[in-house]
């Protein structure tokens, strides 16, 4: 334990009360000097000031020293060092090297290559369950399988990796790549050091050992003697069959798309029994689970223990038979085998029926089809209240994004009540979900956007077989007579809707994990709006609505503190309609009376007027710096400006926030008549150009006089 007495000869002063205070990532240190653990990326600020209520009075500070901790990365090896030699010199891969030797792979990785090796550290191996390493070292085949899953037979630099979705490994399996706000992941491991060059390839250091899925197949491998009863693609049509369960005297109509529907559409002879007693003539069995008794006359056998198991997309079905909703593209495998560990012993299977769903169809228009889905009751009732039933049952065609009941339940109670009690507003919100035209799964997966009947452009994004609209996941697609139903897991709120900003704001919902519904989803930005309360190129909302503001919006900042910071002084010659700032602590936009550094401001000016912040403030008298300005930032989106009067990379501009910011969006490019877009999205912790307008923090340039949205994970001090 020690006390910090002085820095650069400037000592604690008992007469004036000034002394040195330590702040770590914007928060006053909890321990005495020398007792506070720090890690890579930690920001330390040493303030020389007096004390106020037990904490440093930063506003009175006269001296400041800022330090950012950077753990020394692996030195780039000499070109003559191969991968094995490079890992050996690094000194943190002894377990990996021992395993490579035990698996007789040393000569392979010293070969010509080139190779890409995702190298787990000794610490990563230590995190494995006790006894795992010893067991692997005694099982050469298993060890070789795992080690080769860490190696690709080509040189993939970091800039190549982030543009891939899968990497083919020497093990034969596909290693998935996932680029997130947190970092770049291969499988479940994060790349913590990248691009360590060797003469025959490159090493990327990872923080976990990669374990390949057995077989690396989308579904379990069948046994040697399995008989294939069926293997084809089917279209499911709602209400096209009836079901008479075993030992029942009544038949029941099946009006939802389930695994029962897939069996029926395949034309397979099957029998089921109810798992609960039924009384009366039920017209819809949506909520009733069944037991699959037989397929093609092959019955469950209590003597041998063989029975039917269902797998969907290679995974055991989560629900009882008859309760699993399936979508276009899904694969259903029915295995007849014994049980092992609560799951099907697929290797012992004697029969299998494989069914792939090509399309879901309904013999009804949009509203009747929605009524047949038990999870769309809120939408159906809301459509009736908003007088849209006749429209959606018309000839169309329409593609309707229908939020599930669970999606409506996610809305704050105040928002939900306001919607249901305001017919005009409800009509506006529901219409935002309706698109003219018929867009099936095959069409949507190849599109970038669609336009709703209000004229709003909705962003479409496909990742693998998954589709999002306005960054909201599509969970099921149903083709109906007059269009298509896309069931979604969030409610889309139009950018100009008068919706309270409880915990969500606009159409596509800034929920402190993503930006807007118009449109920044981590894969693209479009910038029709980025909310927070809400803010878009057409309007702002928060403490005010701006429905009557038709001019152009500009997002600006000033990289210095003016002698006179009043709006009245700084904008005395500007013809503007509105000036607001987004308060991240309250998540509301506020009127502005002072223009301060480090903050991003929105200003609305009449059409054709224009606003250039660098010209407007170039001749403003600047305040003599006594202590650098600082700004408290909060979890979620913060409107910020550059701290310096020059263009610098984001990793330099936001170095004080390096451990807490995840993403940055901007600058805003104004358009004519209130339109515009955000130019780039940047990711902290990533390098280079990731794709189109997506950049790493080293490439994303922060310009003075521009405003930016910065997503903060934890409260911090921006200085």
From TrEMBL:
Domain FAS1 per the UniProt entry, residue ranges: 80-210, 363-492
Pfam families (alphabetical): Fasciclin
Region of interest: Disordered: 498-543
Segments of skewed composition (Low complexity): 521-539
Family matches, as InterPro entries: Adhesion/Biosynth-related (IPR050904), FAS1_dom_sf (IPR036378), FAS1_domain (IPR000782)
Gene Ontology cellular-component terms listed: extracellular space
PROSITE patterns, sorted: FAS1
N-terminal signal peptide: none
SMART domains: FAS1
Biased composition (Polar residues): 502-517
PANTHER family associated with the record: FI19380P1, PERIOSTIN-RELATED
Protein name: FAS1 domain-containing protein
Organism annotation: Methanosarcina mazei (strain ATCC BAA-159 / DSM 3647 / Goe1 / Go1 / JCM 11833 / OCM 88)
